[in-house]
Amino acid sequence: MSELLQVDDLVVRYGNLTAVDGVSMTIRPGEVLALVGESGCGKSSTARAIVGMDRPADGTVRFRGDEVPTLGLRRRRPEFTAVQMVFQDPNSSLNPRKRVGEQILDGVRAARARGLESDEPGTWLEAVGLQADMVSRYPHQFSGGQRQRVAIARALAAKPDLIVADEPISALDASSQASVAGMMRQLCLEAGAGMLFISHDLSVVRLMADRVMVMYRGAVVESGPTSLVWGDPVHPYTRALLAAIPHPDGKGVLPEAPAADAPEEWASRVEEALNRQIAA
Ligand SMILES: Nc1ncnc2c1ncn2[C@@H]1O[C@H](COP(=O)(O)OP(=O)(O)O)[C@@H](O)[C@H]1O
Ligand SMILES: [Mg+2]
C-alpha cells in the first residue's frame, strides 16, 4: 500500500506524563486528515513526533515507508524536506532577521535539492494572497495574519508531499480563517500532497477534511470520513463535542480547556468508533 504517512502506536511522554498514548494513522497523497480535540489532548505532541521534532517513547512514524529520524526540522536529509510543518504561531516558522523572499527561497531550494521545480518567491506570495513585491520585506512588516500566509508560502515552496499544519489558522482574524484554510486545501490537492490539519474549529474541519480523527486525553476515540463522523457520531465524546456546537450549520469551536467534570465514558474505548468506513 502506498501510504504517504503511516503512524503506528505512537507514544509521546514528558517525564511521567503520557501526552500521546498509542495513536495510529495513515495519510494518502491528496488526502486531508483532520485531528481534533480539546486543548491539551496531545495534538501538537503528535504533530511534533510526526515531523521528527520530538522523539517518540514508542511506536513508529514512517514517511513513504522510511522511518522519520528525530533530528529537528533544520538538519534533515533532503528527502525529509518533503514533510513541511506550519505552526500556529508564524513566528515559530519565520526568521525575524531575514527578508521573507529569502526565507521562501529556502523552501524553493529544498524543492530543487529533491529535483523538483518550484516557483519564484514572489509567485508563492501571490499564491497565498499577498503581493509579489513584498519579497523584500521583513516579517515584522506584515500583520500576524499576513505572516502566517508567508509561513504557508514558505512551506508550500518546498513542494512538500506532506504538510503537517498545527492550528495554522487560529492566529488569523476570523474573517480570513476559512479562506486561508480553503487555500491550503486547494494548493495541497493541486500538488498531490497530503495534509494533517490540526484544529479546534470544527466548522473549518468539516469544510476541509476528508477524514477526521477525534482525540481525547492522548488517544484517538473516533476516526473516519468526515461526513460519517459528523452525520452519525458513535463515541460519547464525539457526540458531546458535536452536540456542543451552538449552530445547526456545524459552526463551532472546541473548548479551550478540558472539562473538569468530564464523564468517565468519554475516555472509554468504543471499537465501532475507530476506523469507520462508509458502507459500499
Ligand atoms: N514540552 C513539554 N513538556 C512537558 N509537558 C508537555 C510539553 N508539551 C506538551 N506537554 C503536555 O502534554 C499534554 C499534551 O499537550 P499538547 O500536545 O500540546 O496538546 P494539544 O496540542 O492538543 O493542546 C498536555 O498535558 C501538555 O501540558
Ligand atoms: Mg497544540
UniProtKB/TrEMBL annotation:
GO terms for molecular function: ATP binding; ATP hydrolysis activity. InterPro entries: AAA+_ATPase, ABC_transp_ATP-bind, ABC_transporter-like_ATP-bd, ABC_transporter-like_CS, Oligopep_ABC_C, P-loop_NTPase. Belongs to the ABC transporter superfamily. Residues 5-242 form the ABC transporter domain. It holds the Pfam family ABC_tran. Gene3D superfamilies: P-loop containing nucleotide triphosphate hydrolases. Keywords: ATP-binding, Nucleotide-binding, Transport. This is ATP-binding cassette domain-containing protein. One of its GO terms (biological process) is transmembrane transport.
